[in-house]
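Q: Predict the assembly, please.
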Amino acid sequence: MSVTYCPSFSFRRIGAMVLRHWYLLRSSWPRLFELMYWPMVQMFMWGFLQLGVARQTGTFVAATATFLAAFFLWDVLFRGQLGFSMSFLEEMWARNLANLMITPLRPIEFVLSLMAMSVIRLMVGFLPVTIVAIWFFGFNLWGLGVALAIFFANLFLTAWAVGMLCSGLVLRNGMGAEGLAWSLMFILLPLACVYYPVTTLPVWVQPVACALPPTAVFEGMRALVLEQTFRPDLMAWAFGLNVLWFAAGAFSFFWLLRGAREVGSLISVGE
Amino acid sequence: MKDRTTLPAIEASRLLKRYGDSAAVNAISFAVGTGSITGLLGGNGAGKTTTIGMIMGLVAPTSGSVKVFGADMAREPYRSLYRMNFESPYVDLPHRLTVRENLKVFGLLYGLDNIADRIARLADVLDLTEFLDRAAGKISAGQKTRVALAKALINEPDLLVLDEPTASLDPDTADWIRGHLERYRAEKNATILLASHNMYEVERLCDRVIMMKRGNIVDDGAPESLIARYGRQNLEEVFLDIARARRQPKLEKDAAE
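A: Predicted assembly structure:
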């Protein structure tokens, strides 16, 4: 019965971690409710704002639809990162991290399971909200088609990069760094031009905005919604930046994990 | 039961861990023989938890090395981790998952086949059946300890590291746990490293005791030989002699044995 072989990479171990978090979600209706609650509230807020603006200014529906599309894509970015970080924090809150770190679970498998959970957690909340948006505001996000999948892929890469950085900081510095998981992404909100074009920013800030992968995604979304034009150049730029961001996020996570072993924080989880 | 030592399951060599200017573990060396039960004793701040952390690969040594079944735990921990497990009252299992779900997840992480059978057997041996489908956070302290032990035994480890396995348990449950550990060692020829503040427990279970104080190993030997050397009635008195530096071993030659 005892284990005699241990592969260096195992999808089964990744599946075990996904199962662990699925059990957790399934066991707690408040957790499931919370995944839908804020996206639903925000969708209604932006949807009614869109309607109000359209009625008062006579703006084209397509122009105002950018609000809802921008909200949805921002939600993918923010909740993608939050799903990654929350799944990680669940291990810290449960004081289960040391149990995991002494199993054959490799850090890369742990990270991949957190990525999978970020997708699952996002979709649990996101799918119902997008369906309600069709019914309530006549806005069909899924109508963006293949482009939407490319937007999603780019946004998830950024979300995971930031999630890895946040989780690494908590590993190295303890739960005192927990607040970063909730707040770090918001620094991108004004700079990534979620609700307005890059040209709205002061000229000297624009290069900073252009170095952020989500900026290209939101620009690409506006081009698609307003001009029905898919911009592969913007997506390629976003993907190139994301490769760098993802590499930096992964490096920071593994470097901070190594630091956590050096300062002994894996056996003293807490403040 | 004694002298089971063959190849060392654990081999620490000049193992040093510094936090800033202070040495939590000060260049200690020891070996733990396969199939033995070894107690790691010392007061608070003696360096036991840091030593265990380095053995489990959770803490990186500042210098020196610790090998488990020949694998350096700082460089290649995954060569041995699948043969080890750990239990401590200070490390929890996720409270919202049921006992069965927790054991299933860890069974998968250790790559077990027939996990349901393994859980059923552990439930039978450790008397978990009645609360297998209850949330791990809603069971009593004694039940939690048995579940933690089930988690630690899920992969039938060759090395079991236990940090105060009977802390906060009533005497009946604690005695029951000790009996199970003795049986497990006897059946599997497993190596057990035990950190405990319960001297009765250490006397009953351990073939050998390593005494630590302020990061150093200050004495090492079989419980009965330590008791004899210090001229005491039991291990608790020896522990107090060492902790308070109030009595030295009787004979130098005994100390060398």
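Confidence is low (pLDDT under 50) at residues 1-5 of chain B. The domain at 8-91+157-221 of chain B is CATH 3.40.50.300 (Rossmann fold).
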